């Protein structure tokens, strides 16, 4: 598989006080979206209605979280006319207040997301002071009461030679498409995982252009809280729910912070790498783990490294971050250094790793040159069987290892 280029960092050519002191910004795969999310317009149903039907609007559709594409490197965007048979004439014709008051838990509403505006297109939609081509995502998975509309759409797309990319990770897309895909996939997955209220257990509905969910006070279904009830003539009052009181009245998408770190020895000459049992032979990466509540990033780095490898760390510095839409992680990349005498590897604490070891910088450089790939995929030409394998350039682990192996901890590189 050809590894795509990484996104261009914002204002990469701009010299500033911060860039001189800390170096250039690092951008990782799945970041670098070309869209302005204009999040403050998500509650404006007149804006969403106009954006939905504009001639420059693009729709990225998903079936079971798999995106529509021509091939693994090229997404296929649809038009309003393509998706109208599924989503209806205008799902934003009414205000959110009206839609909430008319909520019916027996009716499946196609999950629709407003992703943002591509302001590079000056011929796009103009709304107030904002101009750009609108982007939406739609879940076209056949289910519930929309199954009869979704299945013909899927058949039509298949007849056009299009397909939904299967597989958990899509890492062959051009950088900007990958960022749009990541945003859409993470939000569709979150909506699909939260059909019921965490407080009272009743069905919720999507609002704010797909960015929030609310627990409606009434239900047009004859049985309150029922997904399979018959439609009643008048709304049924649902049981009381704490989410309808005070300011905590909606559910927001979650993002799970995860630390991932390149650990260097106290003398700066070696890097700590580890592997899980399920990985192919010779394949290693940096260590990683979730940030726990009431824990700083630095503390999480030290704790995870000690738990997984027994290695004890001193200074921790944040390097860069990477959105990871599987399902909703933010990978916080760090570089950390051992304390004197803290380099002994002990795998007796957390059994997550099959092995951990120290690698010389030259071994890391050689692996970065010819030994990188996606998990289980072949290495580049020149790789010698039995040598070290590392993650592809689309993984933040690759960026972290490249940073420490190519001068991060020397005079030629800064953070």
Key structural traits:
single chain; six-stranded mixed beta sheet; globular; 415 residues; 19 strands; alpha+beta; seven-stranded mixed beta sheet; disordered C terminus
How would you describe what is shown here?
The protein has 415 residues and is of the alpha+beta class. 22% of the residues lie in helices and 25% in strands. It has nine helices and 19 strands. It has helices at 17-22, 45-52, 80-87, 96-101, 147-159, 175-193, 297-309, 361-370, 396-405; strands at residues 58-63, 66-71, 74-75, 112-118, 125-127, 130-139, 163-164, 205-207, 212-214, 218-221, 231-237, 256-264, 270-275, 287-290, 313-324, 329-338, 355-360, 372-373, 390-391. Strands 1, 2, 3, 4, 5, 6 and 7 form a seven-stranded mixed beta sheet that branches. A hairpin with a 5-residue loop joins strand 12 (256-264) and strand 13 (270-275). Helix 8 crosses helix 9 (396-405). The longest helix is centred in the middle third of the chain and has 19 residues, at 175-193. The chain is globular and about 70 Å long. Residues 223-232 and 409-415 have low confidence and may be disordered.
